[in-house]
Amino acid sequence: MNTVILFLLFSTVPTYSRKLIRTLTIDYVNISYCNPEYIISKIEMKKLDRRTFSMNISVDVFRDVTDMKGSIRIFKFSDNVYKETALKYSGDLCTLLDMLRQKYKIHMNEQFKHFFTKCPIMKGHYYMHNFNGKDLGVPIIPQWKTRTFIEVESNNVLIGKVYADITVIDE
Q: What is the pLDDT of residues 100-130, one digit of tens each?
């Protein structure tokens, strides 16, 4: 009888859960190289408040990019320096982009309707206005201040190099 009463007491205790929302804050972006035969890119950043920047991104693609490979390396800010982490990817960026888009519903909002979101990337003009990263809920990156390096190539030709300082926040 005591076991049944304890079970009834503990089975009716309300549980409280909080949905974890992870957002990105983009602190800085630098395009260190663009191959002018493939691409020209321009990023304008404006400060919205003390911690939030908004970006206007414009990309002109001059050749169809059907084979997009590259690497992504993530460095964590710790002890006033960026230290390399085990979070890295090297390989087919089209496969990675498709996986992120399908599994985590990334690039599915209205903000990306004039930007490339899948491969192949056809020649043309792409743009995104007032992008700040907060709409991207990226559960695969820990809550860190990071510097992310991205190198992109197509058919063994370097297309571009970018790095971005990103802070991931749990809200």
A: 777 766 555 667 778 887 889 999 999 988 8
CB burial class (10 A; 0-12, 13-18, 19+) of residue 35? middle
Domain ranges (residues) in the chain: 22-170
Asked if 63 and 55 touch (Cβ cutoff 8 Å), the reply is no
Burial class (CB in 10 A: 0-12, 13-18, 19+), 63: middle
Rounded CA gap, 59 and 50, in Å? Answer: 27
Distance CA 114, CA 134 (A): 18
Question: 58-67: per-residue pLDDT in tens?
Answer: 999 999 998 9
Furthest CA-CA distance within the chain: 80
Q: Which CATH number fits domain 22-170: 2.70.220.10, 3.40.50.720, 3.40.350.10, 2.20.28.20?
A: 2.70.220.10
Q: Is 141 left (phi over 0), alpha (psi -120 to 50) or beta?
A: beta
3-state class (DSSP) for residue 101: helix
